[in-house]
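This follows on from our talk about sequence and fold. Go ahead and set the record down below:
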Amino acid sequence: MRKKEDTIQLFDLWAETYDQYIQNPNGPLLGYETSLGEASYWLKEKKFQAILDIGIGTGGFIKRFHADEYHGIDLSEKMLEECKQNHPNYTLSLGTFNETNQASETFELVVSSFTFHEVLPEERLSACKETYRILQKDGYFLLVDIMFPSEFARIQAKETIARYWDDSEDYPIVMNMDNHLREAGYKSIQWKQTGPYHWAVIAKK
């Protein structure tokens, strides 16, 4: 997998053109907008006081939810600058899944889209525990990302995607992610496939 410094550089360079690219993405991101819609549909009727988007990017996912306060963190300063231009009322800061820099039991909802696969495999359990820590009791963690139901499915996808596959990524396996969420303490965990290579999960604290 890429080092954190390389990931920061990648997203800093991508920030200005990111919104244009995701309008018609290819490879593992195919069906990006549909997956955001499918994932957010779970909570379309709910209103929250404070929500946090981890890896907020330009703000395309969190804006789909109803809240009084919108907070976002990202490891890319350039992405945060783009997000601030689009959503000047959002509270934004640098941060990652394992270093959210947020107080315990702060948010009713924590969301993330197409970011978790950047977390190193050995740090994914601690990342789930961190989301659990910053959620209020009965709060929700909603995640959508490039994931696969099995290792065989991941191998098949690599063959299908071919030149658009990125060998620097280690995309999560659904079963492993489900285990991490349960070990972190989550309950009422629901999964659904939202795109050719995408899965969404909602878990309640």
